[in-house]
Amino acid sequence: MSEIATHPLQSTLARIAAALERLAPPPAARPDLTAADAFVWHPASPQGGPAQLVPVKKVATVGIGLLQGVDRQKQLLTENTQRFARGLPANNAMLWGARGMGKSSLVKAAHAAANAEAPGALALIEIQREDIRTLPDLLNVLRESPRRFLVFCDDLSFEREDQDYKALKSVLDGGIEGRPANVLFYATSNRRHLMARDMIENERSTAINPGEAVEEKVSLSDRFGLWIGFHNADQSTFFAMVEAYAADLGLDVTAEELHRQAVEWSVTRGGRSGRVAWQFIMDLAGRMGVALPGR
């Protein structure tokens, strides 16, 4: 009697289990980490969309030889990146300082230089500032790969009451699993300690133990073994920048005329930087009817 009664129940449960299995989303496919030399990280969406590493067919990069006025910075970051690509120890790097002086351009150029030396050895992965809290998920995807990865966050900074910096601190150095040996983290920021000065001053004035509170917030920058500072360009460096860009594009203009127009452009922009130099050259090339290569 009991066997007869339980048989329909078992059949019903089996049908329910099969229906649930059909409704469940399929397991996420492992990304092909050899599909490109650069990717953009898209974390899982709140609506249930899977995390993705989207390949980048062509990285918007500037040749490292075109980056002027940052020779020491180029040497430090390029050597660090190339050592890592060869499988040798290297440091996480923080590039901080003046706007428009080529911080993010240098990261991409150093990656390109490392891959020119050892093709395919190093993949560049861009993570957005707002996705920093998902960095542990990204590292879990990369951890078992034989390839080496440079995870890059541009314009990294933290605002008041922002707790993401604690997640980044743990990932860079202090977590149980730690940073995988095949991953290096590079970031750029206009702020030396990644947070606004008024945040640090507020901690000093309101915390029970001001010293400890400030140390907790600024210690994030200590997780970067390599600090590289960028400073505003003087006029001679600005001229070197525009000369290098003009020569690369083959612009037929005398140095005297180039300098005259560059000074006028920098005055209207209120400063001198690599970004201002490039914007000036784009304007000059357009007025001269010179198209960019590959455009």
TrEMBL record:
<protein>
    <submittedName>
        <fullName>ATP-binding protein</fullName>
    </submittedName>
</protein>
<keyword id="KW-0547">Nucleotide-binding</keyword>
<dbReference type="InterPro" id="IPR008533">
    <property type="entry name" value="DUF815"/>
</dbReference>
<keyword id="KW-0067">ATP-binding</keyword>
<dbReference type="GO" id="GO:0005524">
    <property type="term" value="F:ATP binding"/>
</dbReference>
<dbReference type="Pfam" id="PF05673">
    <property type="entry name" value="DUF815"/>
</dbReference>
<dbReference type="InterPro" id="IPR027417">
    <property type="entry name" value="P-loop_NTPase"/>
</dbReference>
